[in-house]
Amino acid sequence: MTNKKVVLITGASSGIGRATAELLSNRGYRVFGTSRNLEYVAPIPGVEMLPLNVRDIASVEACVARVLDASDRIDVLINNAGYGLVGAVEETSPDEAQFVFDTNLFGVLRMVRAILPVMRRQGSGRIINTSSILGFLPGPFFGLYASSKHALEALSESLDHEVRGFGIRVVLIEPDITNTQFGANWSQVKQPINDYAHDVKRAASTIARKIKKAAGPETVAAEILRAIEGPYQMRRPVGFHARLLSRLRRFMPAGPVDRSIRQSFGLI
Question: Is the pLDDT at 136 greater than 60, yes or no?
Fold first, then answer.
């Protein structure tokens, strides 16, 4: 047993999750990372990796039990596992939509339900949910992903009201486009409609170019560290552009915001 704070991170095999695991381990936290397929994950110094599929309740419960067996507490849960899907809303089947939500929303719900009894007993804890700028500003051809993140933001706000009396707070991390493999390798809808093909290609190409020029996951990891160690703040947009968009969404007239979104996705 040690006095180190214990952190559990879902989706820690690469990208934001891996960068966060590395940073927190270097800062002296005891970090448990997770991945669906550990055999393909390069070791992270100081980080204990565990198998986890957030879509499987048995896997969730087994993972949390292993962390508690090893550490007897969980101070921070970082819900980072995610699934991206590109395609028009009309092109997206209910099964594809369900898969997105099963990871991005219900996966978080499974983790929260498994963790909260522990945090309530402790009388403390922080739950950090990785959202996106699309969680407050949806864009074309990412509709189901954006919908799942909108739902995650609503869940997080409601949850924070419910658990703060137990010494637990909930945080939303809202990254801008980030240079990671997750951003570069989103799944495509299985039944594309030709009428949308031109605009989908333009939007995907525009976003791909932005990903190559974007900041790396270390910027998001640094914001997660501030969310743990700094003054409480529910919404944490990451980067100047994300902070600007967050303000514009609230204060600018709808027309200019609409044009800006279409321009950002290469549609005008």
Answer: yes
